[in-house]
């Protein structure tokens, strides 16, 4: 059996449960802490009710959490009779078992209406097995026809007497519902009433009617479970075959029904039929196309949504229509906690016996109030009590965060049930602490009375300072390379020249190679600027000479390694590596022979210079010649142009005047 709820811890608190019984009815995940000193000062009794995880996080031991669960106990579980079709006559009907189990007890923990059945907590699930074994079953046959004469009733109706109504009345009389003497007091039975009586008497109805009434009775068949309609011939000669066919059809289907459910209890079905056919909801009640000897399973979910008013047990019965066998289920509702039965009436813990101490809290007698039942409802003067709810030199009652009840502050609740007011005067809360990265106490601590209590390895007002020095470790294993302090997981470099995550960078410092160049040169080759002071200034590292660059240490070793290439005083290149081991010792490996560049080849240089000069001279001459040609051509063109523009003949003086004058006589005609 299975069940569930849709409510979580917040709904447990919102229920404002005053007792353990009220708490477990608030939701399937709700539990009650019965630890005596569980509540903080100012917290109401209802704070004992919360979801299980929240109670544990608040310090309630698991053994002190009341969280009763539902259970199933099978009382009768006879195996279904497993026999073949041809062996029916070998067993007596009373020796045949067709349904399993037959009787069981369900303990159901209940919750509020609207719970979603998806957890195995507050409803239960069983598998009912059923085997088709009997080849005979009770059934009723109705052969209806039209009669012209009146029936011998105790009275004669003046209005129409329909054949279907007559059939209903006859069935109800046959089922013992009425006799002829009470007909004046009874109306025609309804279809629902008839269905109820047919089910109670395990009757499967076969309607044998003529063709003209087929449509009516097919509609009626849909309203009466496990019924069949057959077409009767005009002379009723096929009635036997009709009954056989209808019975075979009815016996191939199993339909489950249940008795009336108690208020607040719901039931659902899931069928596991032949050939892997599964159905839910209403179709989950039945399986079709079943042969004698087949076995089918039904999964039944019974869910309690509320407690009965009187808390009494209830019984429901489930059976297949037409079968005499049934499953009897006794429902026992879990409406109270076990610790409530262990309560101490008139306990001294409840202010001189003014209440029952149960489940870690006082349940006050009538007329008493307060967490410890210390006040009488008749004697309480609110003005006198309010004085106990004010802090010294303050006019605020319960810091404006609660109510003064019986001289004690009961802190109010917030919409976010994870946010809580507490304290004698409700002066504390768990949500007004310093924040970091948008989280209370940076997510690294617990807010108690507006002050962060940090988890181990964290400190600061918002628990935002980590004491873990791992982020400050440099590659050489030193914290901040020995040049700073680790504060809140970050290096604070004490030497202002250095910076970086581990104080490893220095913008104004020489590199490792340049820093040790002179010392390596003086120790390896006895030359350089520190040649004279080498023994005093350059003995801080261990030096090893190697034959070639291939012999130098390569990257991949545990110690940090720097490869260097520097020039000595002779302009020769020398190679070395510098590393510092885990003990802080510096090691230098130097290639014993520097690489010096060879001298220049003079002949090619001179030849090149001469060739360059000659080529440059030729190029200059060619350029000069080209410029002269261009200049001459321009001058000649200019001369030609001026020559063409002259207006007088070059052989005659334009100012010369001849001494000869010729006069022409107009009268002369050449004679």
Automatic annotation (TrEMBL):
Residues annotated as coiled-coil are: none
Q: Name one GO biological process term.
A: homeostatic process
Keywords of this entry:
Calcium, Cell adhesion, Cell junction, Cell membrane, Cell projection, Disulfide bond, EGF-like domain, Glycoprotein, Integrin, Magnesium, Membrane, Metal-binding, Myogenesis, Phosphoprotein, Receptor, Repeat, Signal, Transmembrane, Transmembrane helix
In the bilayer, the protein is annotated as: Single-pass type I membrane protein
Give an example GO cellular component term for this record. Answer: integrin complex
Provide the leader sequence positions: none
Q: What Gene Ontology molecular function terms does this protein carry?
A: C-X3-C chemokine binding; collagen binding involved in cell-matrix adhesion; fibronectin binding; integrin binding; laminin binding; metal ion binding; protein kinase binding
What family does the database annotate?
Answer: Belongs to the integrin beta chain family.
Q: What is this protein called?
A: Integrin beta
